[in-house]
Design a protein that fits this description.
By secondary structure, the chain is mainly alpha-helical. The protein contains 14 helices and nine strands. The protein has a domain of 166 residues: Glycosyltransferase (Alpha/alpha barrel), CATH 1.50.10. The longest helix is centred in the N-terminal third of the chain and has 23 residues. The radius of gyration is 20 Å and the shape is globular. It starts with a helix and ends with a helix. The structure holds glycine. The site of glycine (GLY) has 5 residues, from loops.
Length: 400
Amino acid sequence: MKKRVIFYLLAAGGLFAGCHTTGQEPLPAVIERGLQVAERQALAMAEKLETQEGKLPKSVAADGTFETSGYGWWCSGFFPGLLWYLYEESPTPELKKYAELYTARVEPAKNLTNTHDLGFMLYCSFGNGYRITHNPAYREVMTTGAYSLATRYDPVIGAIKSWDSDKNKWQFPVIIDNMMNLELLLWAAKETGDTQFDDIANTHAEKTMEHHFRPDFSSFHVVSYDTLSGFPHVKQTHQGFSDESAWARGQAWGLYGYTAMYRETGNAAYLELARQIGKFIINHPNLPEDKVPYWDFDAPDIPTAERDASAAAIMASAFVDLSRLDDTPFGKECLAVAEQQLRTLSSPHYLAEPGSNGHFILKHCVGHLTGGSEIDVPLTYADYYYVEALLRLKNTLTKQ
Ligand code: GLY
């Protein structure tokens, strides 16, 4: 609580005077309000599932059914990761107890070799837990998971395989989302000294840079590689509107992934690509004034199309990160867009009233619209990236 109070007092004392002159709620107050709702909802969620062994929150179905998953679902690590962020901000025994409880539920994922999502599952949960507590048992889980993820790398193609399914359609599918699994590998390279992790992460990022992006720097969702030639044989979508469209969350994953790759490696090519993706998003005529994107930038029913709060939360977190790495005027533009996204997400339309929304934090997300699932619902990853973005913004403001 102490850090929050100091931050709020600084705000009230005029450190962020610019915020007060616009007639808007001061940004530090928006951040604190968002974090307080997040903590109340997360604690209630944690209590609700405490005795349901192995269960992790996922969403609320359109008919109101509360949905959970086990460790094997790609989203299993987000709720424990959210609890670690909240604990870091407000280090109470209760938050720590729950962060440890839910993190432990994800541990069996470390041995999975049938999914590329181990970065999401393990880096968000154990990664944050290890960063904060230095618990050596967490380190073991992450290194084991990194070796499991590395089994999916093909040196002929130079990429990590995303999915095992749909063999008739795709020989070696790689989705843009897979950029989000690379931070775990870069962490493992530093921790273990095993350079294969660096090589895999960088080769995958370079291959994705070469084949996933269109001339306008929007990205395809799925690129499938021919396993003999090593070149793409098909470029399609799975969750977007069409093969040629810009699925909003896919653009968010690309922005976040290349920003993180630049942060961790210092490779200027990654920064340049992150900037170009950011420009595509920010300058897109279909990005609404309030900066929460439609679920696909090319959805046919804009402006009545569904918005995707999860894409906005991921983008906001990535834009704050990018603003800290890019000292050109574009960096400032990124920060302004992130601020607008977080203001919008913190409005009553998107931010849940405590006690409602199945104890998720954000409303109005889209998981897989064309598949008919998770349309206009809360999603655990939207909550994780919303809180991450609030904390990144708070840190950035404090340093200004
Ligand atoms: N990684 C799956 C998704 O973004 O829906």
